[in-house]
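Attaching the record inline, Q. Sequence:
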Amino acid sequence: MKKQQLAALGGMVASLFAAMPAQASAWVGTADYTKAPGIIGNLAEEAKTELVGPFDKYDFGTGVVLLESVASCVSGASCYDGYYQSFVTNHELTPTPLTSTKLNNSYEVTVTANFSEVVTSTGVSVTGGQVKLWLDMGVDRNFAGDTGFSDGYNFLSGTIVGGAGTVSSFGALSFGATVLEIRVDSYDTAIFEPDTIVGGDGIFTLRLNFPSDASFINSVNSVQSHTYNAGSDLKFTADGYVDLAAAPIPEMDQYALMLLGFGLTGVLARKRNQA
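Structure, as predicted:
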């Protein structure tokens, strides 16, 4: 395999979340999926979801990333458009998985993403993309059929701001790893408590040449309706997770300015009362 192609694998789930915005703190909260539109009152009780949490991480199961070669690229580099899809195996309160008896039994949470990346001899640069989380009242995902990943309720969407990937080898096996930056643009505030999510951070790994993955990956011929072309494209299995990030907490000097402002307001009010 060409070195640039191998490096491209490091861009893998370059489709997903990653490094938290500056000064952002970890988000810890709950998700009540019964708050999603159309669920309460329209489904049998046993089909409804449960309140999950507190948690701070979505852990993804084995998914698929497809990299389509882009003809137009900067000199000395290779460019790809990437597509990824997977599903949530667990909600975690780091590092402990939470018990969620109905997840992947009565309902599923799936993830889809698309991204662009530039591959050079020095590494992978992710230049942008989007990511979405979906709630589906039924477990219908099918990798071989390329169905059931984006047919539910889109309850969280984000923009990939950037990221970088690397590749490492251990004996005959190779891994790709990518850290990304994502800005959460919208989410259903009725589902999450508290509603202070602004981004996430995570590390995603690509299994490049695992014999145990062969039957699974060979059964997948398209991702998000993008057909795999063996002559120019790449496809691989990918694992990952995302830690959610909350809104930035004011620095101490910001608190000081706030207190000073409140103090001045009180002084002015007192002087007016004495006048």
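Residues 76 and 120 are 7 Å apart (CA to CA). Residues 252-274 form the longest helix (23 residues).

More tomorrow.
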